[in-house]
Amino acid sequence: MKTLNISAVSYLNTYPFVYGIQQSGYLQDYHLYLEVPSMCAERLKSGEADIALVPAGALPDFRDYTVVSDYCLGAVKEVITVLLLSDKPLDKIRKIYLDFDSRTSARLVQVLANSFWRIKPEFERLKPGQAEDLKHKEAIVAIGDKTFGMREHYKYSYDLAGEWIRFSGLPFVFAVWVALKPMPEELLIQFNKALKFGVQNIDGVLDYYSSRLPRNADCRQYLTENISYTLDKVKKEGLNLFLSYL
Predict the structure, then answer these.
(1) Single pTM value for the model
(2) Does the structure show a pLDDT above 70 at 132?
(3) Closest C-alpha to 143, from 198, 223, 91, 84
(4) d(CA 209, CA 177)
(5) Residues 134 and 106 sit within 8 Å (Cβ to Cβ)
(6) Which of 26, 33, 165, 243 is the right S-S partner for 193, CB 3.0 to 4.6 Å?
(7) What domains appear along the chain, each with residue ranges and CATH number?
């Protein structure tokens, strides 16, 4: 096979995967793109990536796809980096701004609004980079590393993974590793070994990326407790339930 093109998320939650891909030695001939979640799906769709960490909310855009890994970006408790931030309580929110970086969180908040919170706000998608602009203070969905410094500026904070778990009783899966064409079995075995290496070596991850870690976050706790990486049976149930709402 030619060079394996991989598209992954550039956030802290994906550092273990990136570390495994780059440092485990299991993969040799590859090119790694690092970008916001919404761009991972586009990279796969365009054919630029052979394997991508695709947001769950983008999966319905693909007619045929294969989940190629037993690892994911998931949560079995509050995830702390996918938030609805607001200066008003839920029943007073009239408009919610949506972070450009993620379609999954945009779709998740709409499912929760309609089926759990029973509110009917207007939704507006922001442009790239606008989520940190604090003028959007009525209510905003924000994701990723930037949220570590945003929560303190809002009166109310709703963790979307935690809200989903309260609503459904199931974990939430934010992204899975996907391919659109058949991949050699041996290559997928090596790919999964690389991911496993990263997930099982969080100390190495934190040391390797020490200069890039958010300074206002407990990164060890986040990677070991808030993010759950194994795509097990219960997470698949949660993913399938979410997709059924889309």
Answers:
(1) 0.93
(2) no
(3) 84
(4) 22
(5) no
(6) 26
(7) 4-74+171-245 (3.40.190.10), 82-168 (3.40.190.10)
